[in-house]
Amino acid sequence: GGGRRAWGGGRCRVVSSCVSADGEVRGAEITSTLEEAFHGAKKSIALEVAEPDRRGAVRRTRKQYDVRIPPGTTEGSRIRLAGQGAPSQGGAAGDLFLVVHLAPHPLFTVHGHDLHMTLKLAPWEAALGAKIQVPAMGGNLSLTIPPRTQSGQHLRLRSKGLPLGGGRGHGDLIAAIRIVVPESLTARERELFEELARNSRFNPRG
Hints:
By secondary structure, the protein is mainly beta. It has helices at about 35-40, 125-130, 185-200, and strands spanning about 5-15, 25-30, 40-50, 60-70, 80, 95-100, 110, 115-120, 130-135, 140-145, 155, 175-180. The protein has a six-stranded mixed sheet with strand order 4-3-1-2-6-5. A four-stranded mixed sheet has the order 7-8-12-11. A hairpin with a 6-residue loop joins strand 9 (about 130-135) and strand 10. The N and C termini lie far apart (about 55 Å). The model is unreliable at about 1-25 (pLDDT under 50).
């Protein structure tokens, strides 16, 4: 809903202060959260800008800018702020370009518009199959795990990644399966595992 696109604070820095003849400033960077990149957001940022004075000397000033992060923004995307760059040699202001970096996320890594995550399964879920809840940017999803799913296997959830922009849909969510065992066992759980070990002819090294 519209509440997701609230104004937020932010910081920005200039790593180079190259000013072209038309006033364009290159090398400004801004950090966005993955949630902001997915839903879109507006941020108010403080930016240190290098500007030439009348005598040609470069002076640094700190300015506030209102920046819109479009839905589907990816690592390295450029945001153009028209007319908000440094003055050109003729006196007119050029454009300011911000390069977007995505902050690390606790669950997902980003590759283009695709989101990658590790999905942990219990041994019986992987062996028998299961229906589980999987976290996604738009909310939890119900995912059916096929029987005999292997550790290291990748499951692709179509169109659950970042928006592609222009109404072209979304990237995918890719879950890498990792089978984990309990760190501690109850007496009954140990009994069941021991029974499985006695009766199973499965040899993972065979």
